[in-house]
Amino acid sequence: MTISIWRYSHLVLAVISSLFILIASVTGAILAFEPITNQLQPYAVSGTNEISLAETLSVLQQEYDEVFTLEIDNNDFVSASVITKEGDSETFYINPITGEKLGDIIKKAPIYEFATNLHRSLFLKTTGRVFIGVVSFLLFLISVTGIQLILKRQGGIKRFFSKVVRENFDQYYHVVIGRYTLIPIVIITLSGVFLSLEKFDLLPDSKISHNYPEQDDVEHKLDIIEFQTFQDIKLEDVSYVEFPFSDDIEDYFTVKLSDKEILVNQYTGAIVSNQNTSFVALASNWSLILHTGQGTILWSIMLLLASLAILFFMYSGFAMTLKRRKETSKIKNKFKKNEADYIILVGSETGNTFNSAKLFYDALIAEGHSVFITALNAYSEYKKAKHVIVFVSTYGEGEAPTSASNFEKLFQKTHQKQTMKYAVVGFGSLMYPDYCKYAIEVDEMFQMQDHFVEHLPLFKINNQSFEAYKTWIKQWNERTNHDLKIKFQKPQVNLKKLKEFKVINKSEPNNDDSFLVQLRPNKKVKFESGDLLSLYPEADFIERQYSIGKIENDIILSIKKHEFGVCSNYFNNLKVNEIVKAQVKRNLDFHFPTDVKDVVMIANGTGIAPFLGMINDNQSKIKTHLFWGGRTQDSLSIYENIIDSAFSKKTLSSFHIAYSQEQKDKIYVQDLILEHQDLLSGVLNANGVIMICGSVAMQNRVLEVLHTITTTHLDKPLSAFENNDQLKMDCY
Ligand SMILES: Cc1cc2nc3c(=O)[nH]c(=O)nc-3n(C[C@H](O)[C@H](O)[C@H](O)COP(=O)(O)O)c2cc1C
C-alpha cells in the first residue's frame, strides 16, 4: 500500500511542476556547456599552489600604474582591474607570475545570457525567481520520492544497484538511469533552492564585519614582496584582493581567502583583522559551484547528463502513467456482473496484469461466453457465475497490489449462492523472496470457502512471461476442452533482415515426435548457444522462436512436431540443402557463463538444444552437469552422439536422466534435482550458475525444488541467487 502513496506523490509533484521543470532542464542542459567552453579557454594558470600572493601583487604593482582588485575565479583564471601605464582603466585576465595581460574577460554569449535569464526567473523577475525556487524544491521532492520508489522496488539500499527486471523500455530505463542520476539531481535541486533562498535574503546574514583597531603611524613602508603575511598565502587559497583606497594607514588590503577574510596593513603587512567566513557564505559558494559546474568540466558534464535525464524521466514517467491508465480504463464490460458466466478478477499495481487478464477476457468473449471483468477490490456477489478466474500480482514484500488491497475483507463478507469453479494465476518476480505470495494467499482463500471448487491449480508467472502465460492458456484449454485463442500483438517482421540458412542434416521424428535440424548460415552470422532463431512462416507471419545450440559453426535445433503445428511441420518437411529464411535474436541473458567454476544445466524435452551446443563449446572446461528429463530411452537417442562427444572432450562432467515413462513410478527432472540437492546447493554456494531450459511447467516445479534446497541448505531464498545472476532461464 505504501508504495502507491510514494508513486502517487511522485506523479502529482511531477504533474504540478512539469512545464517549469521542462524549461529548467532544457536551459540547464544548455547552461552546462558554458563552464565547459569557458574552461577550454587558455587562461587557467597552473601551479597556483606554489605562487605566493606577495609575488603576484608585487609584480602587478610594477607592471601597472594602479591596481584596484585581483580576482581568482573557480576556473583558476586570474583577473585584475588596473590602470595601465598608458592611463587606461581596464580589467583583464593576467599571468600571475609576470603580471602581463593574457586576454579580455570572457563575455557571456547571448545564448547563455538568454538561457540564464529563463533558467533563473523565466524573464519574470522576482515572481519568476520565486516560481523557479519552488519548482526546484518540488524537483527535490520528486527525486526523494523517486529514490524511495527504487529502494522499494529493489528491496533495500544494499540492492539499490542490483539487477532490474525489464518489463518495458520506459520502466526499465526510468529505474536504471534514475539510480545513477537521482543523487546528482538531489544535489542540483538543493543547491538551487539554497541559491533562491539567498537571493530573497531568507538566510542568516553572511556578511563579514571587521573590527577596525586604530593604527599607529609608521615611518617606513615595506615593499609588498616583503609582507610576511602575503608570502605565507598561496594564490590557490585566494579568491579576491582589494587594494587600499588611499595611502591612509587606516585603508587596508582586503583579502578574501577560501575560509576567511583578512585586512592587512598596507605599510607593515600585519594582519589587522581576521574573520572566518560564515557557514552560510561557504554553503552559498559551494551551492554556486555545484549548481553551475563552474570550475570542473567533470561536474559540468554530470549536470548536462542530469538535465537530459530529467527530460527522459518526464517522457518515460508520463508514458508509463498513460499506459497504466489505458490498461485499467480500457475495461468496457459487455455484460453486467449478474449476467455473466465467467468472472475475471484482477489485482494489479501498474497495469501489466490487467493486460493479460484483458487478453483472456477478449478470448472468452470471442468464443461467445458472457464475461465480466473487474478489479479484485470490486469483488461482490455474482448471481449467475460458474467460473471465477483471478489474475493477481504481488507487491511490496509479498503484499496485495493496489487494486486488490481490500479484497480479503470483501471476500470474507461476501457469500456466493451457487458453487463456482476458480483458477488463480499469480504474477510476480523470482527476484523477490516472496514469489507470488499474494496469489498463493488468494488461492488459499478460495480453497477455504465452500462455494468454490478448484478448476486449475495455482499458476505462477515470472516477470510477465508471455510464454508462461501461453502455457497456462494451454492448461485451461485442456481442462475445458476448448480452443481459446489469445490474440497477441504480432512482432513486426522485417523480411529484409532475414538471413539464409542451409539444411545440413535432419533426423526423423522419434517416438516423441522430436527431431534435430542442423542449419548452416550462408553468410557470416553472429550467434551463440542460447540465442534464439526466429522464423516467420508464410501462413501467418507469426514469429516462432527456437533455442539455438551452436556446434562448430552450425545451428542445432531440437523441434517437437505438433499435428497441426505450422512451423514444426515446415521443419519436418525440409530436405537436406534446402534454404530456411530466419533471423538470429541475441539472448544475452542465456549465454554460457565463462567466469564461474560450476554450471548446472536443467532441461526437459527439446529444451536440451542450447545445452547441446554449450557442453561441446565449454573451452575452459568449466565443471558442467546436465540434468535432463525425457519420456523414454528412445527420446534420448537423437542427442546421444552429441552428449558422448562432449564426454570424450571432457567438456561435460556429469549427465543425469529422468525417464518419466520407463518405470511404474514416474520420475521427473525435479525429482533428480532433489536427489542431487547437495550438488545443487554446493554449486550455488560456490557462486556457480544454474541454467534452465524447457517447458514452463517443468521450470515451475524445478524452481520450487530449488527454493526448498536453498532455504534448507543455504538459509537463503532462491531469489537471493536470482538477484546474484546465478539463475538463467529460458522456458516456453
Ligand atoms: C516494489 C515491487 C515489489 C514487488 N514485490 C514482489 C514480491 O514480493 N513478490 C513477487 O513475486 N513479485 C514482486 N514484485 C514483482 C511484480 O509482482 C511483477 O513485476 C508483476 O509483473 C507486476 O504486475 P502489475 O504491474 O500488474 O502489478 C514486485 C515488484 C515491485 C516493483
From TrEMBL:
InterPro entries this protein is in? Answer: FAD-bd_FR_type, Flavdoxin-like, Flavodoxin/NO_synth, Flavoprot_Pyr_Nucl_cyt_Rdtase, Flavoprotein-like_sf, FNR_nucleotide-bd, OxRdtase_FAD/NAD-bd, PepSY-ass_TM
Superkingdom, natural source: Bacteria
Keywords noted in UniProt: Flavoprotein, Membrane, Transmembrane, Transmembrane helix
Tell me yes or no: is NADP among this UniProt entry's keywords: no
Q: Name one GO cellular component term.
A: cytosol
Q: EC number(s)?
A: 1.6.2.4
Segments spanning the bilayer are 12-33, 130-151, 172-197, 297-322
Q: Would the keyword Transmembrane turn up in this protein's UniProt record?
A: yes
The record's SUPFAM superfamilies line, in alphabetical order, gives: Ferredoxin reductase-like, C-terminal NADP-linked domain (SSF52343), Flavoproteins (SSF52218), Riboflavin synthase domain-like (SSF63380)
The Flavodoxin-like domain extends over 342-481
Residues in domain FAD-binding FR-type? 496-593
Q: Which GO terms describe its molecular function?
A: flavin adenine dinucleotide binding; FMN binding; oxidoreductase activity
- This protein is called NADPH--hemoprotein reductase
| Organism from which the protein derives | Winogradskyella thalassocola
